[in-house]
Amino acid sequence: MHSLTITESASGPRTIKPPALAIIGLVATATAAAGAATDALNAAFPLGELTLVTNIDAAIAAAGSGGTLAPALAAIRDQVTPIVVVARVAPGEGEDAQEDTDANVIAGLDLLLTAKTSVGVAPRIIGAPGLDTLAVTTEMIVVAKRLRAMAYAAAIGDDIAEVTAYRNGFTARELMLIWPDTSIDFAGDAVARALGLRAQIDERIGWHKTLSNVPIDGVIGTTVAVQFDLLDPSTEAGTLNGAEVTTIIRENGFRFWGNRTTAGPDHPEFAFESAVRTSHALQDIIAQTFQPFMDHPMTVGMIKDLLETVNAAFRNLAVQGRIMGAKAFFDADANTADQLAAGRPNFRIQYTPVAPLEDPTVRLVITDFYYSGFADQLV
Questions:
Q1: DSSP tag of 216
Q2: Domain residues of the chain, as ranges?
């Protein structure tokens, strides 16, 4: 050969897509009248399978007349028109109906783990409105951890004392508990609306904004009236928030009120829902950054490109106000020659999430200063 051969290569920082966290994973039951209605329901939402909903109005029309699916989708639709991954399960029957229902719902939650493979997207907001018993919520936490998702569930109890005792059984940063409900007809209405509102906030504001203090559409009342006064932390709403339970207040419309997960004192850095969601978003960005570089020759240029890619993404998030700041480092003392030769580099990433303005203090001072020069103004 007596010629010139040209090959192409690409280097430098890459563009990172924003993480898609506004995808809902919904486990629900659904029944319909016998005959054609049941056939239509089974065709739209096969039992024990995942269904990808991209047209929520059509999904509601096909969701049957019984069970939790239709009202849950309707409550979500009142807030937003998101992508929903539905796992339809059968309700239990007979003497062990509740135990059977719980087992079926838990199986539906586990099915959500296969969503990326089976329907092409992974849910990052999950719930089982109206079906979230203690057993179900406990499993929901396990699934949420694996999906890097937030779970929303009802805080079970008839009064604040019972709700607080129930909340004390959880220590998961991936869980937000909600009390009371917003409907006497559908036990799970508030949780379903939380799923929809979470997706709405993700789309319109971002995952760095908590669920709290955003109007809930479609609500005309609550099952329990919760006392609230912004200037008095000892109200019922303040007591619930102090116990890390999100409640519902009526202040220029109905709103969720509370920023806290059930992380508890063991993980104070993830007390805020927004901190957990920020961690999930950054993990997505890190995975997206590293994936194209995996298994390629590890050179100095490649590590520089990788660091600049992820740090550029972090700088963009800071400009958008989604994080206070973040940076990736490649520390020399953490990367010995034998580790690098084995293909095992170590990176360090530090970040600061944006905290919600939860508990401001205002100093109100009475003074005679503004009477200064009073007489001079009468001349």
A1: P
A2: 23-272, 276-353
